[in-house]
Specification:
Number of helices: 2
Radius of gyration: 16 Å
Shape: globular
Distance between the termini: 45 Å
Structural class: mainly beta
Order of helices and strands: EHEEEEEEEEEEEHEE
Largest sheet: 5 strands, antiparallel
Length: 166
């Protein structure tokens, strides 16, 4: 089957993202991008949020915790900033499994859909270990807690369920 040749990504299951029902969604927001200077060795290109590389291309997975910098560009979440989660729904539905979807980075033309995470919001993801810094910072700041560390995603992959508490 063709899926054997597709890259796989970590996923987000939006169990109860209250920002979706309240309309606290920011669509088509730009990701901070810093172009390479002189050569990739001198200063490689960089994105404001954690990326993963698959087959020579960079992607941003659903479930990454984000916020905005002073220019309105998306960056990794840091304490004392509003908390958002990346949740861009795939248009391709013929595969029926979210693990084959992520947003491809397109330099300064990379746009995401973010949902504001408000108290009471819950989600299940397997992205937390890979982007541990933002999740660890949000837990340490008392913003979120892990309420189930033995959860599973709809396809059976191991995951954790989180709840926003502040």
């Amino acid at each position: 089957m063709i899926t054997r040749y597709l890259p796989e990504f970590r996923q987000l299951e939006p169990d109860n993202l209250l920002g979706l029902t309240a309309g606290l969604v920011v669509a088509q927001a730009p990701v901070k991008y810093t172009a390479a200077v002189v050569s990739p060795e001198a200063q490689p290109e960089a994105y404001g949020v954690r990326t993963v590389e698959k087959n020579g291309y960079k992607f941003i997975e659903n479930g990454v915790l984000c916020t905005f910098d002073e220019k309105g560009e998306i960056v990794d979440w840091t304490a004392n900033k509003p908390l958002f989660i990346h949740f861009t729904e795939e248009l391709n539905t013929f595969l029926g499994d979210r693990k084959y979807f992520a947003v491809e980075c397109e330099k300064d033309e990379t746009y995401l859909r973010l949902v504001m995470v408000v108290p009471g919001s819950e989600w299940t993801t397997n992205v937390a270990e890979a982007s541990g810094d933002a999740y660890a910072a949000a837990i340490a700041a008392g913003k979120i807690v892990c309420i189930n560390d033995k959860a599973t995603l709809p396809n059976g992959d191991a995951a954790k369920t989180y709840r926003c508490i502040a």
